[in-house]
Amino acid sequence: MTAKPKIIVGLGTCGIAAGGQDVYQAIEKALAENNIDAELTQTGCIGACENEVLVDIQKPGQPRITYGKVPPEEVGNVVTEHIVKDQISRDFVLGKIGEGDLPAEYEDIPVFFEELPFYQKQNRLCLRNCGFINPEIIDEYVAREGYEALKKVITTMKPEEVVEEVKKSGLRGRGGGGFPSGLKWEFTMKAEGDKKYIVCNADEGDPGAFMDRSILEGDPHSVLEGMAIAGYAVGADEGYIYCRAEYPLAVKRLKLAIEQAKEKNFLGNNILGADFNFDLKVKEGAGAFVCGEETALLMSIEGKRGMPRPRPPFPAQKGLFDKPTCLNNVETFGNVPVVFLKGADYFASIGTEGSKGTKVFALTGSINRTGLAEVPMGITIQEVVYDIAGGLPGDGEFKAVQVGGPSGGCIPKDLLHLPIDYDSLTDAGAMMGSGGLVIMGLDTCMVDIARYFLTFTQSESCGKCTPCREGTKRMLEILQRITTGEGEPEDIEKLKTLGDAISSTSLCGLGQTAPNPVLTTLRYFQDEYEKHIFDKRCPAGICVDLLIYAIDPELCDGCRRCVKACPVDAISGEKKEPHVIDTEACIKCGACLEKCKEEAIKLQS
Amino acid sequence: MSKINLTINGQPVEARAGMTILEAAESAGIEIPTFCHDPQLVGVGACRICVVEVEGGRGLPAACVAPAGDGMVINTESEKVVQARKANLSLLLANHPLDCLTCEKSGECKLQDYCYRYGVAETDYPGEVKEIPFEDSNPFYERDMNKCILCGKCSRVCFEVNGAGAIDYAYRGFKSTIAPAFEEPVENSPCVFCGMCVDLCPTGALNPKLSKGLGRAWEIDKVKTTCPYCGTGCNFYLEVKDDKIVGVTPDYDSPVNKGNLCVKGRFGWDFVDSPERLTKPLIKKEGKFVEASWEEALELVASKIKETVDKNGPEALAGLSSARVTNEENYLFQKLIRMLGSNNVDHCARL
Ligand SMILES: Cc1cc2nc3c(=O)[nH]c(=O)nc-3n(C[C@H](O)[C@H](O)[C@H](O)COP(=O)(O)O)c2cc1C
Ligand code: SF4
Ligand code: SF4
Ligand code: SF4
Q1: Which ligand is closest in space to the CA of residue B150?
Q2: With CB atoms 3.0 to 4.6 Å apart as the test, which of A96, A169, A501, B256 could cross-link to B87 if both were Cys?
Q3: B345 and B254 in one domain?
Q4: What is the value of pTM for the model shown?
Q5: Do B46 and A507 touch (CB under 8 A)?
Q6: Confidence band, pLDDT 50/70/90 cuts, at residue A64
């Protein structure tokens, strides 16, 4: 319990983007002006990104009160009222966290993690510290059982036992492939080599994904601890964190964390007095999506052009600088301390038969509550979309959810009941990927979405494989044609043939999965493609070239301005009577639209 | 080395453990098409034309890098494989100038060969075609990156064998190409014009300038010879048409140089038919070189040697021979000079 009131500002990238720095300064100012003696500190993302800037105030003996969407102009007041007058602003309060008494009038404030619908179905294991600790102060991590797992492992377990425990936990890689982490550790442990490496994949290149960033910014030590445990298990004394340079805050906090961990001897030589050395370096990536692929990533660390190479040999046999290397994702490493703190059995008790533990998802798109949610594996898409994310805004109707970013696929309404685990998603043609969930309503055009993702993968293909480099280009061209009304009947077949050829013959995961967004939208929404191709219509009203110009007879006053404007005489009608546009003759130049004073000319799908 | 047994196209094959599927197939006389594979380079599995079907396996692995396993049942020409290869070729054609009629590579172009083999006459996927400026600013070879299929053999041989590392992949996606740093002309790069890249290129993207227009692949005979430039004695084939030399191709089986050459051997063959080449001895008379007969020239040399030795002793005599003659001839030459009493003998191998 704190002796002084404590004020915590959410200063992850999401918080900063929402104006967190200004809020922080405004609080500093208010504290000074009102002579309030309080501790002001920062924390990482707690997941409720859409409520940023989040400000928490904890008075001694009281629960911690979380305020959301606090503007800098108001925050001074909120803080002063709370601390000085014990008045909680109803305009901004979200919930309460922890034990303690509040004045009776505030009893109704919901318990943050238990009563707020966004959190009710979450299980925050990997994100256990995000939003709770100041990531720049190692003692705050240590105070929440930080480095306890490492201590336990080094002082009481043999490397083989550590590997066994990870195997028993059922932990699978969170970076996309879902490979059993214990097995990977075992291969690296057993690989012959005078030198071994641990590498953390913090490249997070999927558009729309920000789970890893939040962990790195909010709880960097959990990743370092996971890596050190891995180092002990496989016999590595050196590690790299490959973090994309577009995450400057994560890089800064990682470097700081490494420095502090060295000072405390959680990293360095003879860690905690044992015969175990482990050192870490941060390597910044240069912004290529393909550098998230493990072999390309290793090349990039070595200073070469990041291009995937064939496997075998797998990194566990021949990785960084040709030495056995254990490479895992940020979230995978972040889960490792949990496995040892709570036990493999506990970890394995969460989730489904084949997918254990939790997964962090980045919720974006057409939903009421965007943000980061950590849910037990096996939760249904329905629960995530409706219970956690609060469904679509207004009376929006759900159409599909894109799972797994550009490598994933679009899952339709009929499959809302699908449990979220590695295998179910793969069977549905999508994949877990890194955990991006983009929710889409009826106003989303599926052909356009496929085109969007393919634009991304095409421009990110490393250029090595013919099918990936050339094939995605042709698929993209076909999609561009379809969305501009130039689609031809054989295009659907061509997309399928090309998609199959690309996925079955490409070298790395990028090429193998690049057709997924197209193949899944074809699988579940072929009628939408057909409408574009045969009827030249875009049912969602997104593809501009396919929209129809029409005159609303209610609004048209028959002024004839549009008739004069139309270069192809497509508009007819008696004076003072509603006019009509001949859609066959219309060339969609928009000239009429500009001239109509009554705004009677509409674009229709 | 332990043996493994597998079945390729229904045929039992015994291979060595550690072989790739491609090597196992080749050892049984089964040919699998490749663009990016070369036995002297590290396998990269880039072009994907060598994909094969492995029973019970996922996708179609690239034979050039996939390890052959004991008990594998492999089909190198199944319907799926053929479909994938056709799609691959169709995609390459969509982005390739179809000027085979005038292309120097015609007749020995792998793209042409495989399109013929799989009956791919035109692309199913017409669309944007790359437009990269043609580069011919150096005296030795032209670079037409519009014909490049990005197999990467050039950049790999340059890095792995030559060590120059003059070129590499640049950009990503459809914009990918092979280029020297900052897309400077190759002469501004570490390129030493060994021509190894030119020799490995499966298409007409890299062409030796001197051979341009001198003959089609099928008109040319290859004559094995030893490079006359230096004492290393690299072997290669002279390309000959109508008794004229029209080019050089490497001899990868040569124990001396395994196909590697330097700029002189690779590109310097045009001296043979040069009109400036000396074919008769010249004697300087009144400040001018005048053609002479061999008898007259040898007479003159002998008399000058005699005169020098008589007048100033044998130590005044020195012999300088050529690096461009054989070891045996050089041996005889030094013997001659020593017999005349002088140890001052050397030759010009100062490459
Ligand atoms: C194109 C491509 C991009 C990838 N990007 C990432 C990434 O950003 N982060 C990540 O952890 N894994 C990424 N992966 C997966 C990695 O190759 C690798 O499987 C993973 O990092 C292994 O860690 P894990 O077993 O803990 O999941 C990517 C794979 C591909 C093919
Ligand atoms: S599949 Fe694409 S990204 Fe992967 S190696 Fe091949 S060309 Fe590069
Ligand atoms: S000529 Fe030789 S040095 Fe020059 S780019 Fe080609 S392989 Fe490299
Ligand atoms: S220039 Fe020739 S050898 Fe080099 S990548 Fe292109 S096709 Fe291959």
Answers
A1: 4
A2: A501
A3: no
A4: 0.91
A5: yes
A6: very high
Q: Residue B194 falls within a domain, yes or no?
A: yes
Å from CA of B202 to ligand 4 middle:
7
Nearest residue to A110 (alpha-carbon basis) of A171, A68, A163: A68
Q: Where do the domains of chain A lie?
A: 6-116, 138-348, 358-441, 446-535, 547-604
* Nearest residue to A277 via CA among A265, A289, A288: A265
CA of B93, closest CA in chain A: separation in Å?
10
List, chain by chain if needed, residues with CB within 6 Å of any ligand 2 atom.
A 290, 308, 461-465, 468-469, 506-508, 510-511
Nearest to A469 among B51, B124, B150 (CB): B150
Cβ A477–B128 below 8 Å, yes or no?
A: yes
- Is 1.20.1250.20 the CATH classification of the domain at A547-604? no
Shared domain for B181 and B196, answered yes or no, is yes
- The architecture of the domain spanning A6-116 is 3-Layer(aba) Sandwich (3.40)
Q: Is B154 in the pocket of ligand 4 (CB under 6 A)?
A: yes
Q: Which of A455, A510, A404 is nearest to A502 (CA)?
A: A510
Residue B327 pLDDT class (50, 70, 90 cuts): confident
pLDDT number for residue A1: 46
Q: Is residue A211 a contact partner of residue A434, using CB atoms and an 8 Å limit?
A: yes
Which residues form the domain of B26?
3-77
User: Distance between CA atoms of A214 and A219, rounded to whole angstroms?
Assistant: 8
Q: Which residues of A are less than 8 Å from B173 in CB distance?
A: 458-461, 463, 469, 472-473
Token pair, residue A234, equals 């496989």
- Longest CA–CA span in chain B (Å) reads 90
> What mean pLDDT value characterizes chain A?
95
pLDDT at A593 over 70: yes
- pLDDT band at residue A588 using 50, 70 and 90 as cut-offs: confident
- Mean predicted confidence (pLDDT) in B132-161: 97
Query: Cβ A505–B51 below 8 Å, yes or no?
Result: yes
Residue B152 has pLDDT above 70, yes or no: yes
d(CA A108, CA B337): 114
Degrees to nearest 5, angle at CA A541 with A536 and A542: 95
Chain B residue numbers touching A312 (CB-CB < 8 A): 67
Q: Which residue of B has its CA nearest to A457?
A: B173
Predicted local confidence at residue B230, as pLDDT? 81
Rounded to an integer, the average pLDDT of B76-89 is: 97
| φ and ψ of A119, to 5 deg | -105, -15
Pairing of strands B221-226, B235-241: antiparallel
pLDDT grade for B325, boundaries at 50, 70 and 90: confident
Mean pLDDT across the stretch A370-374? 95
Nearest-CA distance B270 → chain A (Å): 37
In this structure, chain A runs to a length of 605
How confident is the model at residue A213, as a pLDDT? 96
CB contact under 8 A, A310 and B45: yes
Q: What angle do CA A491, A493, A499 make, to 5 degrees?
A: 100
Confidence tier at A337 by pLDDT (50, 70, 90): very high
Residue B125 and residue A494: Cβ atoms within 8 Å? yes
pLDDT at B349: 67
Question: At A379, which amino acid appears?
Answer: I
Q: How many domains does chain B have?
A: 4
